[in-house]
Write a structure and sequence with these properties.
Blueprint lengths: L2 H12 L19 H8 L3 H12 L6 H15 L2 H14 L3 H11 L3 H15 L5
Helix pairs in contact: 2-3, 3-4, 5-6, 6-7
Length: 130
């Protein structure tokens, strides 16, 4: 191994993963890279893709990246496996329509709707606690 290879290897080992970007600088130029948020939030693949593409669209592919966000969001909306899993859980546990809505909205990270449906459920089940 030559001296140049050793220096490059040591330099590479000392780098943080976010210091190196292969192909462009659209992430390195950000104050905080999407991967940092994605890992902090423990996002799913689809959530991570949406965060990644919407964060970089101005610096990389413009409209194409925004369209990718739409594509991934639609894939999540049409996730049949998720729907079937929720449906199976609801049926096996004989849950109500309102409980189904709360679980479904939770699965889609729509917490404003979760709050609203929980408030409705409280009003129906425990009106005296309002």
């Amino acid at each position: 191994m030559g001296i140049y290879q050793i220096i490059v290897s040591v330099k590479y080992i000392d780098m943080k993963a976010t210091d190196l970007q292969i192909g462009g600088s659209h992430y390195k130029d950000m104050a905080m890279q999407p991967i940092e948020l994605i890992t902090a939030l423990r996002c799913s693949f689809i959530q991570g893709c949406i965060i990644k593409y919407i964060s970089r669209y101005k610096a990389k592919n413009g409209a194409q990246d925004i369209k990718k966000c739409i594509h991934y969001a639609k894939r999540r909306c049409n996730d049949k496996a998720l729907f079937l899993s929720i449906n199976k859980f609801i049926i096996k546990n004989k849950l109500t329509i309102l409980q189904r809505r709360i679980i479904t909205q939770t699965a889609y990270n729509n917490y404003e709707q979760v709050i609203q449906f929980c408030k409705e459920l409280l009003q129906i089940e425990y009106p005296e606690e309002q």
